[in-house]
Write a structure and sequence with these properties.
Largest sheet: none
Shape: globular
Number of strands: 0
Strand content: under 5%
Order of helices and strands: HHH
Helix content: 25-40%
Distance between the termini: 33 Å
Length: 90
């Protein structure tokens, strides 16, 4: 299945961190939360994160589950894009 066919122009509003699951109470109380868009975990938002997301999604890796509902689906790409647009505090 080629993920490129699911790309859309609609960018949803990214939920606040505590609206995403799974989260610990510590994270919701101000602890560290991972940057969803930083898929490769290098502490920067770069085009390699987009490539890493596609590779993870096509491999069935839940690292691409950006809406954190436990399944891989096209909505994960929308969640990744929303996180990318919102940026991250590193």
């Amino acid at each position: 299945e080629n993920i490129i066919q699911y790309v859309s122009l609609e960018i949803p509003t990214l939920p606040m961190p505590c609206d995403l699951t799974p989260q610990t109470q510590e994270e919701c109380d101000g602890g560290t939360i991972d940057c969803i868009a930083d898929i490769n975990g290098d502490g920067m938002l770069t085009p390699t994160d987009f490539t890493a997301w596609i590779v993870a999604y096509n491999a069935g890796d839940l690292a691409a589950d950006c809406n954190r509902n436990g399944t891989l689906e096209p909505a994960d790409f929308s969640a990744w894009v929303a996180s990318w647009v919102a940026g991250c505090d590193f």
